[in-house]
Specification:
This protein has 601 residues and is an alpha+beta fold. The chain folds into three domains: 380 residues, no CATH class; 112 residues, Immunoglobulins (Immunoglobulin-like, Sandwich), CATH 2.60.40.10; 74 residues, no CATH class. The protein is 18% helix and 24% strand. It contains twelve helices and 28 strands. A seven-stranded mixed beta sheet has the order 13-4-3-15-16-18-19. It has a five-stranded mixed beta sheet with strand order 1-14-2-20-17, with no helix packed on it. Strand 27 and strand 28 form a beta hairpin. Helix 9 runs parallel beside helix 11, helix 9 packs across helix 12 and helix 10 packs across helix 12. The chain starts with 9 loop residues before the first strand and ends with a helix.
Length: 601
């Protein structure tokens, strides 16, 4: 499985609100410890409800939904997609969680976001001055690199500007503003009215631009405050996308206001574009009848990217009790069901449906369907351990990390987006459970600014959570590479230690400014390009993905890539004009291409 990381498992820990972390541990009803191994590139929601189905609280929500706004952003819901695609609301991302949270007693919904100044939600190309620089999302202007299997678009070739949108207004609704929509069965096109509200938060990872040459709507400045008003716990429950195939441990301190009794913990997990015989680009295609709705769609919405609607999200649930004096364990290997509908206007939206049409094949298609949570050796896919409060009665929080340094990354090609992080390990009476690293363009000086900052990510092109080993003794030097940054930007990087009782140490913070991006004039896949005669050949793209996903993610792989960069140009020059040597090179590369293709399954 691609993205599999070897070594220590990543531990993710969080609480309902930042304030809960500072409460005396004896006031807690205990601790919930979740264990699971997710698929690669998965969106996840974790929540608790009463045994009768009444929603209690969200415990975890991956960053793309919580802070990047993929469920509530400009663009029609049927627009094509791609890795870091900028437009198209993905209301089918985590619909069961979204609907249960939104319909809970006292819950509010989020205001819906639409394009700022375009005539319909089907226009992905700019038709007015409505754009500003986007440091996360981008759109590939090369169709060959915007398909489902060509994820080189994750590395934006240049600075991209996007329309951040605005809130839908009552006047818009009264005027019948809608989105172009094609019914899956009849392929009939219609303009579907949009409601004022969405069950998903808008993106809160942007600050409204103020320069005369950018054009953000005033509403952009309200996105973050509105989201935190509707869902005050959004910062505390946000989790970076876990590394696929790597065991995860999520720790949660139960707030004292929860009552003893019977509960149910549920996890919803989704992977965009998870095709099978029933759910694929033929059964749920890109709209194919746009001519019947002239002016509703443009080619950027339909011709770039891919139809994302593969198998819907899968939900796993397990029952547990609170209030006992002994630890208890509950597990499940069987899904509770799958999302009944992607369509927010469908009466079945957010309901649990059957697993009809859903398939999984852990051998041929690992991470697909029900296998989005991997079956573990002892027979479970989701495990919950409930620990009584006495477990942490005498716990002391960790010490601060010391000698924190953030250095420019040694490889100039990636120095604009990656840095090298080093510090001396903290001390704790029960051992460090995890190190939490966050970054921001604003100073990180207290709990609030720390929690509102973005979670650190691995130094790879994929947005996976940063993994830091926790086995170092207090005072030992820990070093790791960190990614997810943007060129020529001043950052504040902060870190703190957390123990197994959710106790946290002091926050340590440093600053760094990333350099300008260094562009190369030749493709790094020197020999493969020379052998196949085309930088866009399928085999060359496969080898690029092997480099980006599996070699650049670890020290040994990076050393191999550096050695190849040193020798590759000379080898490419040797074979480029000699067909016999090119043929030999293609044959020699075939086993490597096959291995890379297998890893990408």
């Amino acid at each position: 499985m691609r993205g599999v990381q070897f070594g220590a498992a990543l531990a993710l820990a969080f609480s309902i609100a930042a304030a809960a972390l500072a409460q005396p541990l004896t006031s807690s009803l205990g601790f919930l410890e979740f264990e699971f191994t997710p698929a690669d590139s998965a969106q996840i929601a974790l929540w608790v409800e009463h045994a009768d189905g009444r929603f209690v609280a969200t415990l975890g929500l991956t960053e793309a939904v919580a802070k990047r706004g993929i469920g509530n952003r400009p663009g029609a819901s049927q627009m094509n997609s791609g890795f870091r695609w900028p437009y198209g609301r993905r209301e089918g991302a985590l619909p069961v969680w979204a609907q249960r949270r939104a319909t809970a007693p006292g819950a509010q919904q989020f205001r819906r976001v639409i394009f700022q100044n375009r005539t319909t939600e089907g226009l992905a190309s700019r038709t007015s001055n409505d754009q500003s620089r986007d440091d996360y999302y981008c759109l590939s202007f090369d169709r060959s690199r915007s398909t489902k299997d060509a994820l080189d678009a994750v590395s934006c070739a240049s600075v991209f500007s996007s329309d951040k949108g605005r809130f839908l207004s009552e006047a818009d609704v009264a005027a019948g503003y809608g989105e172009p929509y094609e019914q899956p069965d009849s392929l009939m096109s219609l303009m579907r009215p949009l409601s004022l509200f969405s069950p998903y938060p808008p993106r809160i990872d942007v600050t409204r631009c103020e320069a005369a040459t950018c054009y953000d709507h005033p509403d952009v400045a309200q996105f973050a405050a509105h989201t935190r008003e509707v869902m005050p716990e959004i910062d505390a429950i946000t989790m970076a996308t876990p590394v696929g195939g790597s065991a995860q441990v999520v720790l949660f301190s139960v707030p004292p206001e929860w009552q003893p009794g019977e509960y149910r913990a549920c996890m919803e997990i989704n992977v965009e574009g998870d095709y099978n015989a029933a759910f694929n680009d033929t059964s749920f295609p890109t709209p194919v009848n746009p001519t019947a709705a002239s002016g509703w769609w443009d080619s950027w919405a339909l011709s770039y990217g891919y139809p994302y609607r593969g198998q819907p999200s899968v939900v796993y649930c397990t029952d547990f009790d609170l209030g006992g004096s002994a630890a208890q364990t509950s597990t499940t290997a069987t899904p509770a069901g799958s999302a009944a509908s992607w369509n927010y206007e469908d009466p079945a939206y957010g309901l649990l449906g059957s697993m009809d049409g859903m398939t999984d094949d852990p051998v041929a298609a690992p991470g697909s369907g029900a296998d989005r949570l991997q079956l573990m050796a002892d027979g479970y896919r989701l495990k919950l351990v409930v620990k009584p409060p006495l477990t942490c009665m005498t716990d002391a929080p960790p010490s601060a990390v010391s000698q924190l340094q953030v250095e420019e990354y040694r490889d100039e090609i990636n120095a604009h987006q990656w840095v090298h992080l080093r510090f001396r390990a903290a001390d704790d009476d029960q051992g460090i459970f995890r190190y939490e690293v966050r970054f921001s363009t604003e100073p990180i000086v207290d709990e609030q600014s720390f929690m509102s900052a973005m979670l650190a990510r691995e130094a790879t092109l994929e947005a996976a959570a940063l993994q830091i080993p926790t086995d170092a003794q207090a005072g030992e030097m820990v070093e790791v590479d960190m990614g997810g940054l943007v060129q020529e930007t001043h950052y504040y990087v902060a870190i703190r230690a957390m123990d197994a009782c959710t106790g946290v140490g002091p926050i340590s913070s440093v600053e760094i400014t990333t350099p300008a991006r260094v562009f190369t004039t030749v493709t790094p896949c020197f020999v493969a390009t020379a052998a196949h005669g085309n930088a866009l050949a399928r085999e060359v793209g496969t080898l690029r993905r092997l480099r980006d996903r599996h070699l650049l993610s670890n020290d040994l792989g990076r050393a191999l890539v550096s050695a190849y960069y040193a020798a590759g140009p000379a080898l490419a020059d040797l074979i480029r004009e000699r067909e016999g040597l090119r043929s030999v090179a293609r044959i020699a590369l075939t086993p490597v291409v096959e291995l890379a293709s297998w890893l990408d399954r």
